[in-house]
Amino acid sequence: MSRLEPIHYGRFCKFLEYVGCTFKRQKGSHLIYVRDDLPRPIVVPAKKNLSRTVIQSNLKTLGIDREKYLRILKEI
Fold it and tell me: Could you say which DSSP state residue 19 is in?
């Protein structure tokens, strides 16, 4: 099983758009993405590299496991 590695926030935003999320707004240095079936919005700090913790938390909200996430990153 592969480990999650920190990635640039722009690449994570492309991933979110690929899985059907839409950009709603920006508040300070945080980007807010939404999708109708999610219980809460996805918050992405606009930092150079997102930590594993931020990625894991957002994947849990999306209901996407690590392997599927890594497969999608290779596609985009």
Answer: T
Which residues constitute the domain of residue 13? 7-75
CATH number of residue 37's parent domain = 3.30.920.30
For the chain, how big is the Rg over CA atoms in Å? 12
Which residue, chain included where needed, has tokens 């957002």? 58
Residue 31 in any domain: the answer is yes
> What are the tens digits of pLDDT across the range 8-66?
999 999 999 999 999 999 989 999 999 999 999 999 999 889 999 999 999 999 999 99
Amino acid at 6: P
